[in-house]
Amino acid sequence: MSRSSATVGDRRWWCFLRDPRLSRIARAGQFTVPAMNEEELRSAIERPAAHAGLLLEDGLCDLLLRKLQEARGGAGDAIALPFLAHALRETWTGRVGTRLTFGGYQETGGIGTSVARAADRVHDALDADGRRELRELCLRMVRLVDGQGKAVRRRVRMGDLTSDGTRSGATVLLSLLTDARLVVVDDGEAQLCHDSLLHGWPRLRDWINADLDGLLVRRRLGEAADAWDETGRPPSGLYAGEHLAAARSLTENDGRTLPTRPVERDFLRAGDQAERRRKRLLVTGGAIVLALALASTLALVARRSQQEKVLATSHAGGHVQLWDLARRSEPRRAAPLDLGASAAIAFHPRGRLLAAQTDSRLTMWNVADPRKPRKLAERRNREGVTWTLAFSPDGRMLASGDAKGRLRLWDISEPSRPELRTERTVAPTGLISLSFYADEGLLVTGNGRSGPEDKVPAQVRLWKVSNPGRAVLLSTGTTDSVMAVAFDPQRLLVAATGRGGNLAWWAVDEADGLEPVEVSDPNWVWGSSSHLPSISFRPDGEVLAAADSLGNVKLRSTDGSDPSFATLTDESQLPAGDSVQALAFRPCPMW
User: Are 212 and 205 in contact (CB under 8 A)?
Assistant: First the structure.
C-alpha cells in the first residue's frame, strides 16, 4: 500500500476541512508543526552558520532573537521568520571574512526593513520605464483576495511575463529580483519569494492600494480567460454586459492597471464581438434570437433577361429595402417591403423572384420593377426565427433553417403557389447555414455546438433532396464550431467556417458521404481572432470569399490543382467599415 504526504499552510487548511472526504483524512493523519521556541530559533541561526564555517559576533544572535520576537508579536511567524531569513542573507553579503558582524546586520536595516531596502535598491537603480515595468511585473505576481487589499503571492508563467513586446525588459528585471532573493523562478514559473514581501515593502503595498478595484477585476478577468482557453474557448464562457465593460476598462485607464495578457486580449475581443452580435438579436418570447434582417446586403442577383439589377437589404424590425441598380454608380432607393418581423431573404438564381422568410411566414415577390414589387404568395408555417434561406440551383426548391433546428423545403415550381414539402427538426440547436450543390440534388446544412456546456461538437450534414418531400440524410460530420457552410460549385467539396477563423473541409463521396479532408497545415487559420459568419465560392470555384466580423471581406484564390484545398493563395481583403454578416457572388463567373 502506497502512502503520500502533503504540506498545507494554515491559510489553506480550511479547504481540506470543508471537503467531506478530505476532512476525514485530515483529522486522522494530521501532524501539526508548532511554532519554534527560542532554543530552536537559536539553533536555526547558529548551526547553519557553523556548518558553512562562519562565526557570529558575540551578542549578534541575541540581538536577532530579540528583534525577531518583536516582529513575531506584530506579524506572526508566517511573516517574521522570512524577514529573519532575508536579514541573515543580507548580513552574510556584508560579512567581514568569515564573520557575521553587527555592522553588516545594521546595514540591512534590520529584520523589519531588510526586505524593503533590498527591493528599493532594485527600484531606485532603474529609469522611469524600468520602474513602470517593475511595478507591472510585481503586481502580476500578486493575487488580490478581497476589496480590502488582502493579497497573497501568485505563481505566473514566464511566458505571460515576457511574451509581450512592451515588457521586453521583464527578463532582465526577473534576473535582478532573483539575485536580490526577492523572486523565485522555478519550473518555468516565477513568484515573489514569500508573502512577507507583501507586508515588508511599503512601495509594493502602495501599488496595490492605488487600484484595488482594478486589480480585483484584473484577477477575475485572468481566471475567466484561462478557464475559457482551457475549455476550448466556448462562447458560453465569454464576458457580457457589466462584466465585459468592467474588464474592458482595464485597457482604457492609461496604464494604471496592468496590461492584459494575450489570452485576456483574445477573451475580451471575443466578448466584444459576441456583444456586437447580441445587439443585433431580437427579443422573442422573452428569449434573444438572431435577427437575420441586417443592415448589410444579404443578396444580389443579375437579371439576365433585361440586364437590370436589383438589390435587397433586410433590416431589423421586418423592413426589407429594394434598390434600383440600373445605374451601378448611382443606386436608387426603391420600394420598401414591410414584413412585420425580421426576415431572411434570397433571390431566385435566374429570375426576378425574391423570397422572404420571417419567423412564421414565407412571402414571394416579383421585383422586376423594384419601385412596384408584387406579392405573389404568402404561406404560414410553424414559428421559429429563420437563420438561413437559399434557392436550389434550378430555382425549383427553397430551403430554410431556423433557430429550433428545423429544416424546411418548399416546392417553388409555381412561385405563386409555394408548397411546403418538408418540415422536420434535424439538429439539436439552431440550423445556422445551408448550401446547395450545383446539381446532384445535394444540400449541406450546419449547426453549432449543443448539449450541456456546449460539449457536443458542431455538425455538418449532407442531404439528398432530389425529392423535396423526402429529404434523405446521407452523412454527418463534426467540427469544433460552425458559422457557415458552402459547397464548392465545381468540385464535390464542402467548406465550413467557425469562430476564430477556423476552416474545416469534407470531400463528398457518393458511397461514404462526408469524408474529412486534411489540409497541408492543420494549424492554418483564416481570420486570426475574427469570426467568419459567411463564406461563398465564386461560381467558377477559383475564389473563396469570407465575411469578417472585424469589418472586412476576405478573398483567397484557390489552387485548382489541389483537390484537398491544402493550398489557398493570394490573400486579399476589401474594407467594409463594419462587421460583415453575409455575402454572395453574382451568378456569373466574373465579379
Answer: no
Is residue 324 classed as helix, strand or coil in its secondary structure?
strand
What residue spans define the domains of the chain?
1-33, 38-112, 126-278
Q: What SS3 class is residue 460?
A: strand
CB 554 within 8 Å of CB 532: yes
Handedness of CA 530, 432, 471, 408 (dihedral sign): negative
As a whole number, mean pLDDT of residues 46-55 equals: 83
Cα torsion 70, 73, 76, 82 to 10°: value is: 0
Strand partners, 379: 362
Model confidence pLDDT, tens digit, residues 293-352: 233 333 333 233 333 478 788 877 778 888 887 776 677 888 999 888 888 888 888 768
Is the pTM above the cut of 0.85?
Answer: no
Q: How far apart are the first and last CA of the chain?
A: 74
Q: How far apart are CA 166 and CA 48, in angstroms?
A: 43
Residue 114 in contact with residue 90, Cβ under 8 Å? Answer: yes
Nearest one of 454, 312, 484, 452 to 387, comparing CA atoms: 484
The contacts of residue 535 (CB under 8 Å, 6+ apart) are: 484, 485, 486, 495, 497, 544, 545, 546, 547
Which of 152, 376, 132, 163 has the alpha carbon at shortest distance from 257?
132
**pLDDT at residue 365, rounded to an integer:** 93
* Cα radius of gyration (the chain): 34
Instruction: With CA atoms as reference, report the closest residue to 481 among 465, 501, 461.
Output: 501
CA separation (Å) from 304 to 348, 355, 367, 416?
A: 12, 18, 14, 21
User: Is residue 550 over pLDDT 80?
Assistant: no
**Helix (H), strand (E) at residue 506:** strand 503-509
CB count within 10 Å of CB 369 equals 15
Q: How far apart are CA 541 and CA 580, in angstroms?
A: 22
Mean pLDDT of 133-155: 80
d(CA 100, CA 87): 11
Say how far apart CA 563 and CA 492 lie, in whole Å. Answer: 9
- Grid cell 454608380 in the structure block, residue: 329
pLDDT at 6 > cutoff 80: no
Residues 173, 196: Cα–Cα separation, whole Å: 20
